[in-house]
Amino acid sequence: MNRTTEVATALHEIRLVGRGGQGIVTAGELLGEAAVLDGRYAQSIPAFGPERRGALATCVVRMADGEILLRCSAGSPDVLVVIDPTIWRLPPVLLGLKPDAILLFNTTRPPGELPKRPQGRVGAVDATGIALAHLGRPIPNTAMLGAFAGATGLVRMASLKEVLRKRFPGKADENFAAAHAASEAIRWA
Are strands 79-82 and 56-64 parallel, antiparallel or unpaired? Predict the structure, then answer.
């Protein structure tokens, strides 16, 4: 097995989707930083339109045990994290996912009412409600990062806590409380 094959088998790709202004880019950066703290290589590639706040925004995060040679935003995600509960029906949101992808939705809907993958898992968590309870504002990005960590194990909660302390020194405890609560509140289909 050559080095290229080794890297490819250890590569995880995550697509974060929401609307401009919801912290999609920040969430991608934080997720990549947490992966680096866990000893992995990581990259975060945001994609959003400059048109207006509220437009569709995505961020592809890749993490691997070795160097990541791929440098584009297109791919086949292993995990989809939908931060805005109103956009999951838009065509580009579910495009190109692996058949066994894990789908995590910020929603109050039961997971049985959400899109399914042939072999994947579908989880739902009310990250907006959790953010309101812990932060006093409807900003669900850090709660969804906690849900991601709890659902996949691809980053440790301790690493997520450390990057939250660095990025939000005055609100780190509240953000981590939201992340921790969301990691335990996932409902699976």
Answer: unpaired
How confident is the model over 172-182, as pLDDT tens digits? 999 999 999 99
Question: How many domains would you assign to the chain?
Answer: 1
Given strand 41-48, what is the order of strands in its sheet? 41-48, 56-64, 12-19, 79-82, 102-106, 121-125, 187-188
What mean pLDDT, rounded, does the chain reach?
91
Q: Which domain holds residue 140?
A: 3-188
pLDDT at residue 52, rounded to an integer: 65
**Interatomic CA distance for residues 124 and 65, integer angstroms:** 28
Q: Which pair of structure tokens corresponds to residue 47? A: 């994609």
Distance of alpha carbon 113 from the chain centroid = 20
Q: Which residues of the chain have pLDDT under 50?
A: 1-8
The amino acid at residue 184 is E
Query: CATH number, domain at 17?
Result: 3.40.920.10
In what helix (H) or strand (E) does residue 30 lie, and over which residues does it extend? helix 24-37
